[in-house]
């Protein structure tokens, strides 16, 4: 996924992480010419990326939530990284803005929204809600969400049916 600063971020799952040196880091940043600029290396004592479950890209920053321990990883284009604990296990998507994050799904509840406030070391749960359609009906089936900064885009049961939610 590209950001407005001409960086391309790639998040991978286990088939790529274990079988291809290009994707072995699990989260990789490229320049606009396709040249490798950065790959994630976890700090000592922290699990490596096996599979990225939720991914979000904004201007100069990427966010990922990954298996096996599901921390919230924040990566800046200058190489600064931060890991936070999160109350949500295996979210499907996320929207991030300032000190707020909304995670979709996780905890085996695909229609659940988890609104959290970010601190230095964790995402604190503020509120949970059920994801609904504009008519109030629950939205339980959707394709892989796309997180772009403060927005989370969801494709419904048809390729022409898109929904957006945000912070």
Structure description:
The chain is mainly beta and 167 residues long. 4% of the residues lie in helices and 46% in strands. The chain is built from one helix and 14 strands; from the N terminus they run βαβββββββββββββ. It has one helix at 14-19, and strands at 8-11, 27-30, 36-39, 51-58, 61-67, 72-76, 81-84, 91-97, 100-105, 112-118, 123-130, 146-148, 151-155, 162-166. The chain has a seven-stranded mixed sheet with strand order 7-6-5-4-12-13-14, with no helix packed on it. A hairpin with a 2-residue loop joins strand 12 and strand 13 (151-155). The longest helix is centred in the first third of the chain and has 6 residues, at 14-19. The protein is globular, with a radius of gyration of 16 Å. The two termini are 20 Å apart.
- What's the tally of helices? 1
Which structural class do you get from the secondary structure elements?
mainly beta
Shape: globular
Low-confidence stretches: none
How are the strands of the largest sheet arranged?
Answer: 7-6-5-4-12-13-14
Distance between the termini: 20 Å
The count of strands amounts to 14
Biggest sheet, in brief?
7 strands, mixed
Q: What proportion of the residues form beta strands (DSSP E)?
A: over 45%
Strand/helix succession: EHEEEEEEEEEEEEE
State the share of residues found in helices, binned by percent: under 10%
- Rounded to an integer, what's the Rg over CA atoms? 16 Å
Please state the average pLDDT score: 93
């Amino acid at each position: 996924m590209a950001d407005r600063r001409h960086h391309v971020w790639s998040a991978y799952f286990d088939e790529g992480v274990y079988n291809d040196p290009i994707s072995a880091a699990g989260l990789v940043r490229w320049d606009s010419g396709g040249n490798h600029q950065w790959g994630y290396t976890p700090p000592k004592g922290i699990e490596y990326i096996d599979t990225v479950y939720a991914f979000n890209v904004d201007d100069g920053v990427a966010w990922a939530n990954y298996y096996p321990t599901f921390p919230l990883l924040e990566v800046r284009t200058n190489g600064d990284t931060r890991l936070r604990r999160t109350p949500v296990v295996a979210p499907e998507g996320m929207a991030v803005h300032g000190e707020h994050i909304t995670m979709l799904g996780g905890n085996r509840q695909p229609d659940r929204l988890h609104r959290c406030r970010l601190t230095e070391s964790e995402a604190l749960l503020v509120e949970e809600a059920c994801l609904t359609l504009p008519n109030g009906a629950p939205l339980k089936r959707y394709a892989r969400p796309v997180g772009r900064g403060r927005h989370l885009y969801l494709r419904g049961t048809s390729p022409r049916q898109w929904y957006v939610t945000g912070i």
